[in-house]
C-alpha cells in the first residue's frame, strides 16, 4: 500500500467547540480552494463581487445565532463539549424538539426570505440524521458507522457549512449512470493505507463555492450488474480546498448598482457548480461507505430524507410568506384591493396556511427513530415536496399579475438620482408613499418574479429534491395508507347485503 504522508492532512481535528460568527465564517473560506467561473480561477471568493453578496447573507445567519437574546432559540449545549452549538445539529427526541429546531430554522429562513435553498441548516439536519442511524453505515464495516458519528460531532463543534452533490452528469439519458461513456462518473480509482482516491464529476453542488465541506453519497440506491459496480458505492466528506477537487460555477446572475435595484439577486445568489475530482485523496476517517453495495442499501434507510424535508418545508413556508408580503404591499401602494385582487391574495394565504399545517402535522405525528430519536412524519412533508413547485410558480404568476407594467418599467436608484429624478418622483409615487419607497418594492417584485434570479429559483423548486416525476411515482407506489383506504372501500361494499335486508327486507 502507498504511503500518503506527503498529502495535505484533512483529518477531523482542531475542534473550536462552539458556534462561530459571520467573521469566522468568512475567514474560513479563504483557504485557496479551486473555484472557477467564467473561465477564471478565483483567488479569494470572499472579495469577488460574484460571491460577496451571498457570503455576507450567510455570515449574517451565523451572526444571528451569536445574538445573546436568541441564544436559547438558536443554540443548545453540546453533549460532548458543553459549548453552545447550532440547534440544527440537535438529535431531536420529542415532538417539542422538532418544534424547537424548526423555530431555529425558521428564524434563519425569515432572514433570507426563504430564498436560499442551501443554508447550512439543511445539511446539518441531514448529517445529524445519519449520525442517529450510524449503525446502518456499519453494514460495510464497523469503522464506517463510527466515522459518520465522529463526523457529525466534528462539524457540530466546528460549526461548519456543508454542501452536497448527488447527481452525476449524463451524456446519454438512455443509459444508466454506470453506463455513461468515458470516466466522468465519480468513483474510487485506488486506495492506500491512509485512504482512497476518487475521480469523476458530480453536479449540481449548490452553495459549493461558499461551503466548508462537501458530502458525497452514492447517486443510486440500486446497482446494476456491471463490472466493478462497487467502485461507485462510496460515500465520504471532503473539505472544499481538497487537492484534486475543483468547482466550475455557472455564470453569476446579473446584479449591478445598488442593492435596491437587485435586492434578491445581489444578496442571495448562492451559486451552483459542478464538482470535478482528479485522484482526490480522502482519508479513511472521512469515508462512510466503501465498495459495499450492502452498505449503500442499508444507509438508504437513514431518516435523513424526512429530516431534510422538514427543513425544506420550513424554507418553503418562509418563502411563501415573503411572497405573500410582497403581494399585499403591491395592492396597498396603489389602493388596488379590488375583489379579483383579493381572490388572488386568498390563493397565497391558502398556500401559507397549508404549508404551516403540514409542518405541524409532521412534528406532532412524529414517529420513533433510531437511538431514541424521533423522525418527522414523512407523508405531509411529501405533500409539500409534491405541491410546493406548483404553489411557487403560481405565486410568481400572481406577483406578475399584480405588478403588471409597473414592475416592468420600475426605475433604478440611478434613475431616481439623475436629472430625471423630479419626473420619477411624480409618476412613480404611490398613493400614500414616496416614489423611492414604491420603486424599492417594484424592484423587489421584479427580482422575485421576473428576473434571472426568479427563473433560477423556479427551476430550483422543481428539481431540488430530485426528478419530480420519479418522486411522484414513488409516492404513489409507497403510500402507506393505501391498503387501509382500499380495505375500507371493500368493507363498505361488503355491507350491501346487510342494507338490502335492513331497508328492502330482502
Automatic annotation (TrEMBL):
FAD binds at residues 164-166, 206, 467-470. SUPFAM superfamilies: Acyl-CoA dehydrogenase C-terminal domain-like, Acyl-CoA dehydrogenase NM domain-like. Residues 22-289 form the HpaB/PvcC/4-BUDH N-terminal domain. Coiled coil: none annotated. Keywords: FAD, Flavoprotein, Oxidoreductase. One of its GO terms (molecular function) is oxidoreductase activity, acting on the CH-CH group of donors. This is Aromatic ring hydroxylase. The lineage of its organism: Bacteria, Pseudomonadati, Pseudomonadota, Gammaproteobacteria, Pseudomonadales.
Amino acid at each position: 500500500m502507498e504511503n500518503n504522508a506527503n498529502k495535505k492532512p484533512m483529518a477531523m481535528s482542531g475542534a473550536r467547540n462552539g458556534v462561530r460568527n459571520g467573521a469566522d465564517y468568512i475567514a474560513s473560506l479563504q483557504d485557496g480552494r479551486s473555484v472557477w467561473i467564467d473561465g477564471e480561477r478565483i483567488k479569494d471568493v470572499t472579495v469577488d463581487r460574484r460571491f460577496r453578496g451571498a457570503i455576507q447573507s450567510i455570515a449574517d445567519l451565523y451572526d444571528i445565532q451569536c445574538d445573546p437574546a436568541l441564544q436559547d432559540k438558536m443554540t443548545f449545549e453540546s453533549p460532548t463539549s458543553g459549548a453552545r452549538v447550532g440547534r440544527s445539529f440537535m438529535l431531536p427526541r420529542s415532538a417539542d424538539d422538532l418544534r424547537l429546531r424548526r423555530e431555529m430554522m425558521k428564524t434563519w429562513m425569515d432572514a433570507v426570505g426563504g430564498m436560499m435553498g442551501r443554508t447550512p441548516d439543511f445539511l446539518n439536519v441531514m448529517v445529524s440524521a445519519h449520525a442517529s442511524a450510524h449503525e446502518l453505515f456499519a453494514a460495510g464495516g464497523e469503522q464506517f458507522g463510527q466515522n459518520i458519528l465522529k463526523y457529525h460531532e466534528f462539524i457540530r463543534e466546528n460549526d461548519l457549512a456543508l454542501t452536497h452533490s448527488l447527481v452525476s452528469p449524463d451524456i446519454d439519458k438512455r443509459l444508466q449512470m454506470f453506463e455513461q461513456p468515458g470516466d466522468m462518473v465519480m468513483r474510487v480509482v485506488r486506495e492506500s493505507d491512509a485512504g482512497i482516491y476518487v475521480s469523476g464529476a458530480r453536479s449540481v453542488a449548490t452553495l459549493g463555492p461558499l461551503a466548508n465541506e462537501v458530502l458525497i453519497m452514492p447517486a443510486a440506491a440500486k446497482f446494476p450488474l456491471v463490472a466493478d459496480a462497487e467502485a461507485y458505492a462510496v460515500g465520504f466528506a471532503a473539505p472544499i480546498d481538497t487537492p484534486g477537487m475543483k468547482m466550475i460555477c455557472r455564470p453569476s446572475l446579473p446584479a449591478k448598482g445598488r442593492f435596491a435595484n437587485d435586492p434578491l439577486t445581489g444578496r442571495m445568489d448562492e451559486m451552483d457548480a459542478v464538482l470535478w475530482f482528479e485522484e482526490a485523496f480522502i482519508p479513511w476517517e472521512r469515508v462512510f461507505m466503501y465498495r459495499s453495495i450492502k452498505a449503500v442499501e442499508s444507509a438508504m434507510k437513514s431518516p435523513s430524507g424526512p429530516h431534510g424535508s422538514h427543513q425544506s418545508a420550513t424554507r418553503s413556508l418562509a418563502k411563501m410568506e415573503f411572497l405573500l408580503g410582497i403581494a399585499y404591499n403591491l395592492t396597498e401602494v396603489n389602493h388596488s384591493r379590488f375583489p379579483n385582487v383579493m381572490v388572488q391574495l386568498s390563493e397565497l394565504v391558502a398556500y401559507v396556511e397549508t404549508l404551516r399545517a403540514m409542518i405541524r402535522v409532521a412534528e406532532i405525528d412524529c414517529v420513533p427513530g433510531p437511538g431514541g430519536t424521533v423522525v418527522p412524519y414523512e407523508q405531509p412533508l411529501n405533500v409539500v415536496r409534491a405541491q410546493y413547485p406548483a404553489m411557487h410558480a403560481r405565486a410568481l404568476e400572481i406577483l406578475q399579475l399584480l405588478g403588471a407594467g409597473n414592475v416592468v418599467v420600475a426605475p433604478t436608484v440611478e434613475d431616481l438620482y439623475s436629472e430625471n429624478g423630479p419626473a420619477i418622483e411624480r409618476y412613480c409615487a404611490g398613493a400614500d408613499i414616496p416614489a423611492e419607497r414604491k420603486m424599492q418594492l417594484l424592484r423587489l417584485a421584479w427580482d422575485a418574479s421576473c428576473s434571472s434570479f426568479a427563473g433560477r429559483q423556479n427551476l430550483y423548486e422543481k428539481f431540488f429534491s430530485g426528478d419530480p416525476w420519479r418522486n411522484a411515482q414513488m409516492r404513489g407506489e409507497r403510500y402507506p395508507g393505501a391498503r387501509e383506504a382500499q380495505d375500507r372501500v371493500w368493507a363498505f361494499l361488503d355491507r350491501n347485503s346487510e342494507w338490502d335486508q335492513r331497508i328492502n327486507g330482502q
